[in-house]
Amino acid sequence: MKCTTLRGRRSLLAAVPAALVGLALPAWAKFDNDQFRIGYQKAASTLVLLKAKGTLEKRLVPLGVKLTWTEFPAGPQLLEGLNVGAIDFGYVGEAPPVFAQAAGADFVYTAYEVPTPRAEGVIVAKDSPVKSVADLKGRKVAFNRGSDVHWFIIALLRKHGLDYGDIQPAFLAPADARAALERGAIDAWAIWDPFLAAAQSQGNARLLANAEGVASHHQFFLSQREFAQKRRDVIGIAMEELGKEGQWVRQNVAAAAAQLAPIQGLDAATIQSGLQHYEHVYRPIDAKVLDEQQRIADTFFELKLIPRKIVTKDAVLS
């Protein structure tokens, strides 16, 4: 059920990761049939390129729909924007939808990117005594709370005979985590591309493990439920254009990296390395990927990271 009352909104904010609460968002907004508001992150390369090229805006002109874009620092904040009515559509990793659904956010899964496990990893300083995942026991590991690497680190630890309680979590945003790793304030950092590629190429960092054989690292396109119900045509056009952009990126990785470099503030070679870890192939939501999301949700509830059990299949259009 949507949290439309003030009490409901306060309850949601009390349950979500703290990083969501401090973000300045537009005022609570109602569904607007003639508006399409997309939330994006700079790391979401296909969306960023689509925004830069303006092709989606042109497709929506005949429908009388105005497109606007809002940038968010990470998936958890984007989900809060979706919940309070600031945006209609966005792209996030595996964990943010689970946290948001458990907190009462009203959204639906629209599509997903096929698995990209090489696009996230745990890094340590090159001279770190940590040589294996087992060596993380008792160590301070940084990651963005509520993001896809939150699930990755849990799954990685379990695969290597450890549990979440065996490490000291340090909830840090990417820029803060990189600085902490470089000055030795943390022992390891779980992060996604292009930040992962940048830390390896520009910093004194070594890859300890990526998500291959550990987590699928799905990326999801999510929609506000009412918008998804009433503007299937708009979402269909958006996914069609994203599919085209993804195909272009796969065939023109170097050119895509060159276009993204000034936007993402990284050198083209680093961005190209990160782009090659993503598939840029998007598919409609299916039962298999929802089952994977359910496993993540069940694990988070077991660890008391979310306040209640959820059914991920409830977050789809009937």
What descriptive keywords fit this protein?
318 residues; alpha/beta; D-Maltodextrin-Binding Protein, domain 2; 2 domains; 6-stranded mixed β-sheet; 5-stranded mixed β-sheet; 14 helices; 11 strands; 43% helix; globular; disordered N terminus
Write up this protein.
The chain has 318 residues and is of the alpha/beta class. The chain folds into two domains: 6-116 and 218-315, 3-Layer(aba) Sandwich (D-Maltodextrin-Binding Protein, domain 2); 118-210, Periplasmic binding protein-like II (D-Maltodextrin-Binding Protein, domain 2), CATH 3.40.190. The chain contains 14 helices and eleven strands. A six-stranded mixed β-sheet has the order 2-1-3-10-4-11, with helices on both faces. It is globular and about 60 Å long. The protein starts with 5 loop residues before the first helix and ends in a 16-residue tail after the last helix. Mean pLDDT is 89; it is low at 1-28.
Summarize the entry for a quick read.
With 318 residues, this protein is α/β, with parallel strands linked by helices.
Annotate the secondary structure layout:
Layout: H1 6-15, H2 18-21, E1 35-40, H3 45-53, H4 55-60, E2 66-71, H5 75-83, E3 89-92, H6 95-102, E4 107-113, E5 120-125, E6 140-143, H7 148-159, E7 168-171, H8 174-182, E8 188-192, H9 195-202, E9 205-210, E10 219-224, H10 225-230, H11 232-251, H12 253-264, H13 268-275, E11 282-284, H14 287-302
The name of the CATH architecture of the largest domain is 3-Layer(aba) Sandwich
Shape: globular
Strand order of the largest sheet: 2-1-3-10-4-11
Instruction: Give the count of helical stretches.
Output: 14
How large a portion of the residues is in β-strands, by DSSP E?
15-25%
CATH class of the largest domain, anyone?
A: Alpha Beta
- Helix and strand composition category: alpha/beta
